[in-house]
Amino acid sequence: MKQTKIYGVYQKNEKLFTENLPSCRGVKVYNERLIHEKEKEFRSWNPYRSKLAAAILKKLTFTITPYSTVLYLGAATGTTVSHISDIVKDGTVFAVENSPIAANELLILSRQRGNIIPILEDANHAERYKIFVPSVDIIYQDISQRNQGEIFLENIKKFLKKEGIGIMMVKARSIDVSLSPSKAYDLVAHQIKKQKLNIIDIIDLSPYEKDHAAILLSS
Ligand SMILES: C[S@@+](CC[C@H](N)C(=O)[O-])C[C@H]1O[C@@H](n2cnc3c(N)ncnc32)[C@H](O)[C@@H]1O
Question: What spacing in Å lies between the alpha carbon of 81 and ligand 1's midpoint?
């Protein structure tokens, strides 16, 4: 098992892994593979189930530490959240999800993983969770809505620390079905640049996700 350039993310035979939290030893989240090496337990991270894993395999690099605080928008049932929870083991993941059914799964996950704070809310209304979410090091968003750019920028304005980073998963067809994927990514990139944020990278997620890209920015 080799540490990658990203803290807490490991690679073995072209596959990604995170080290399972000690409190969750033996526990799977989405039927991922558990493997053991040097008394540590690692969870396989499936790039077809997690766009962040796909982006990392496509060479996305960013700074994350065991103490990072992350605001995660569009957490669903917690597949990707669980791997971020492994990475920021002494930090916190504030996980926002507006579907009550998915948020219930997140709640169950947060009982096993003390560093996840599930929030049943609409990310369009950042002011509603402003009272429990502090300024964060990383904002990650995976929401396939037409106004995903606006949602991301509003949350960045309210929660991203100076010199923090933002990672947005863009679904081209949600932006505008009539545009080619690259034109849709440019449109979102233009929105971001207008806010004086720096785009560091735009990574197409194929073959893991069709017509999706990861946009990495810094404040
Ligand atoms: C593509 S899924 C996310 C998958 C998840 N990020 C993962 O990798 O495990 C998108 C999620 O965003 C949620 N969502 C959509 N609009 C939202 C909004 N306005 N606020 C919060 N969550 C939203 C959906 O309910 C859905 O669970």
Answer: 11
